[in-house]
Amino acid sequence: MQGWAVPPQKEPEKSREEFRKEREEKVRWLIKNRYLRSERLKNALLKVPREDFIPSLYRDYAYLEVPLPLPGEEATISCPHSYPLFYEPLGLDKGHRFLEIGLGSGYGTALAREIVGQDGLVVSVEIDPLTFEFAKSNLENAGYTDIVLVKGDGGLGYLEMSPYDRICITGACIGIPSPLLKQLATGGRLIAPLIENGIQNLVLLEKSEKDVIKKVICEVLYVSLRGKYGVKYMK
Question: Is 78 a catalytic residue?
């Protein structure tokens, strides 16, 4: 993986209780370091066991601040801090209709489902069939049966359930795919790693009736978006 040292594979040894303590400590760390403010996101992070969304041989590393490999082409589960890094500025909240581009392990999808609640909607699109099946299995095993999972090109979004109040793109892109901007509701927000002058910046877009306002949050490093609007296609 680009730019990261992947820890060695090992058979899992930690107990549920050990993971629970690590999860609680991680939440305290996220609050202390000002990544985490939202009460709903805090509760979701405490509730969803991240270790259940990681391949067995990397399970014991669940709460380390390092991306871990997943089944599929260049697929990873992001560092624990990445989820509040995205969801806090996005303002993801109860009742939102949420579209996720890049299903990954399904962990961020489960967090989103907890945040939006029963009145909300979560749709997630994944292009890699191996990654899709891994995440689908994780979510089903965790009891999340009301998430709309789509195997396809995330850059095209999912028109059938649009418009969306919030959209999260988890792969770096040269430009925001136009179908996603069209599927974003007026007053909605979209967040994505955007490649600008050779640097990846996490950007937040807010859509009004007249225009789209862009705000740069920080520099990041993510695997590239694939598909029609992916980096390889756009070059």
Answer: yes
Whole-model pTM: value is 0.93
73 in a domain, yes or no? yes
Query: For the residues 58-73, what does the mean pLDDT come to?
Result: 95
78, 82, 105, 124: the active-site residue: 78
Overall domain count for the chain: 1
| Locus of tokens 């589960």 | 77
User: What 3-state DSSP class applies to 178?
Assistant: helix
Per-residue CA distances from 57 to 7, 43, 51, 60 (Å): 10, 27, 11, 8
d(CA 135, CA 106): 5
Please give the residue range of the domain that contains residue 148.
Answer: 16-234
The residue whose two tokens read 């891994």 is 134
Determine the angle formed by the axes of helices 39-47 and 107-116, rounding to 10 degrees.
Answer: 130
Structure tokens at 27: 């939440």
- Per-residue pLDDT at 96 exceeds 80: yes
Task: Give me the DSSP letters along 89-139.
Answer: HHT--TT-EEEEE--TTSHHHHHHHHHH-TTSEEEEEE--HHHHHHHHHHH
Q: Residue 8 falls within a domain, yes or no? A: no
DSSP conformational letter for 73 = T
* Other C-beta atoms lying within 10 Å of the C-beta of residue 38: 16
Q: What is the CATH number of the domain that holds 85?
A: 3.40.50.150
The whole-angstrom separation of Cα 147 and Cα 158 is 13
Q: Which amino acid is at 34?
A: R
pLDDT digits (tens, 9 = 90+) for 189-221: 999 999 988 899 999 999 998 888 899 998 888
Is the residue at 9 inside a domain? no
